[in-house]
Amino acid sequence: MATPFEEVASSSLLSQQIKRLYNTGRLLGLDDETVEALATPERVLEVKMTIRLKDGRVRTFVGWRSQHNSALGPYKGGVRYHPSSTRDEVVALSMMMTWKNSLLLLPFGGGKGGIRVDPKTLDKEDLEKLSRKYIQQIYMYIGSDKDIPAPDVNTDSQVMAWFLDEYIKVTGRQDFGAFTGKPVEIGGIAVREYSTGLGVATIAKMAAEKFLNGIEGKTVIVQGFGNVGTYTVKFLSEMGAKVIGVSDSKGGVIDPEGLDYNELLNVKKATGSVMNYPKGKKVTNEELLTSECDILIPAALENVIHRGNAEKVKAKLIVEAANGPLTADADLTMKRRGIPVVPDILANAGGVVGSYVEWANNKMGEILEEEEQKKLVISRMEKAFNAVYTEYQKLGDVDLRTAAMALAVERVYKAMKAMGQL
Ligand code: GLU
Predict the structure, then answer these.
(1) What are the pocket residues of ligand 1 if the criterion is a CB atom closer than 6 Å to any ligand atom?
(2) Is 363 a catalytic residue?
(3) Which residues contact 189 (CB under 8 A, 6 or more apart)?
(4) Of 355, 359, 361, 380, which is best to mutate to test ligand 1, by the most ligand atoms within 8 angstroms of its C-beta?
(5) What is the rounded CA–CA span in Å between residue 289 and residue 304?
(6) Fewer Cβ in 10 A, N or C end of the chain?
(7) CA of 3 to the centre of ligand 1 (A)
(8) Same domain for 6 and 103?
(9) Whole domain around residue 238: which residue ranges?
(10) Which of 152, 232, 346, when mutated, tests ligand 1's pocket best, judged by the most ligand atoms within 8 Å of its CB?
């Protein structure tokens, strides 16, 4: 029978993750059987959602919830809606959540969900039906002490509100901590909306201090203008960096004079894409990634920097705001070229730290002041960055990802060992 490792040749993100885990295992002195136990998800739900659309058509969608590892606590991670979502992608992303939550010292294991759908082609009412159906299919496996979904690509606080409402209906339990990233009216917290971007900016600033003599005046390119990209641009602009390029799925813009955050928001709202920014030059996403800048921040989807374009990247520092934007090949290229890459499990962890604060508040039945929430997110991120940087120096000839993975995997390994699972 094929082992989980042999089965995954079809999915690049999952095979990359397994490769990275193997390398980390070797560094930590773990044998292959232990790595196999760390790699394999505990449970993967595959569900069907058949709904009748507003226009009368019946359509069937598939989705997943992958519960990767619960040694450190209930599974935690987002749910994405994307036309190219697959089971393997969701499993890979759930594995990354295990390492992310471990690295940030959160009391969570790793999980992730996905529905294969292009939400832009669905009416709001149909999207609500689909979201509710997804919860009807997985409710018995989730809850504030089991598995806590949150927003991810193309999902937001509105989707979480539908999830929670449906969950309460089908379970009869007022378990508000079962989802995070909720609207503030139903137990959400203000900081969660922007905590991923705040975390990315905090980490970019710390990395710039170590590798580029500070963030002030540094030129930045951000690929992606969804929740993560927008707030990353906002906070980095406030910190004195000069954002010169942004893009969304339709295309991008570059202006060496700098882009104005509010103007970008207006253009996106009015025309549907930042590429219609009135100044600068229109570029494709591919051109954007290989344009001149100090800091490149891929904040959209996975595998955008790969063997084919890694050599052409001109940035001096890369901060992974998306999950998995660099392939394992790209990692090797950047290491050889001396370009530091701050890995996703550190750089974009502000989102799940915000979720942690929300979940803890829901559990305590109390809501912290926004300034306190913000301070908590920033201090957790700073602490994690310092831990990774120290490990990076200690290990010597490794990249930042290897250092982060070593810390994260070791903690999960020790928890599994303590419980007698290994
Ligand atoms: N979807 C985000 C991530 O990839 C946040 C997950 C969460 O808050 O649970 O980290």
Answers:
(1) 76-78, 100, 150, 152, 180, 323, 348, 351-352, 355
(2) no
(3) 354, 357, 358, 361, 367, 368, 370, 373
(4) 355
(5) 9
(6) N
(7) 28
(8) no
(9) 195-347
(10) 152
Quote the ligand 1 centre to 100 CA distance (angstroms). 9
Q: In this structure, are 294 and 308 located in the same domain?
A: yes
In whole angstroms, give the CA distance from residue 127 to residue 79. Answer: 14
Per-residue pLDDT of 188-213, as tens digits, reads 999 999 999 999 999 999 999 999 99
Could you tell me the distance, in angstroms and rounded to a whole number, from the CA of residue 188 to the centre of ligand 1?
14
Minimal-distance CA residue to ligand 1 atom 9 = 77
Question: Measured between alpha carbons, how far is residue 9 from residues 3, 12, 16, 21, 90 in Å?
Answer: 11, 7, 10, 15, 15
Q: Which one is catalytic: 76, 100, 112, 374?
A: 112
pLDDT band, residue 9 (cuts 50/70/90): very low
* Judgement on whether residues 119 and 19 belong to the same structural domain of the protein: no
Query: pLDDT, tens digit, for every residue of 342-359?
Result: 999 999 999 999 999 999
pLDDT in tens, 69-107: 999 999 999 999 999 999 999 999 999 999 999 999 999
Amino acid identity for residue 85 in this structure:
S
The answer as to whether 363 is a domain residue is: no
Reference 251, options 274, 230, 228; nearest CA is 274
Q: Domain ends where: 126, 141, 174?
A: 174
Give the position, in ligand 1's atom list, of the atom nearest the Cα of 148.
9
The enclosing domain of 201 has a CATH number of 3.40.50.720
Are residues 25 and 131 located together in one domain of the fold? no
Q: Does residue 129 form part of some domain? A: yes
CA of 256 to the centre of ligand 1 (A): 32
Distance from Cα 257 to the centre of ligand 1, integer Å? 33
Domain count, the chain: 3
Instruction: List the Cα angle 345/347/349 in 5-degree steps.
Output: 60
The answer to whether residue 262 is domain-embedded is yes
Give residue for tokens 């940035």. Answer: 315
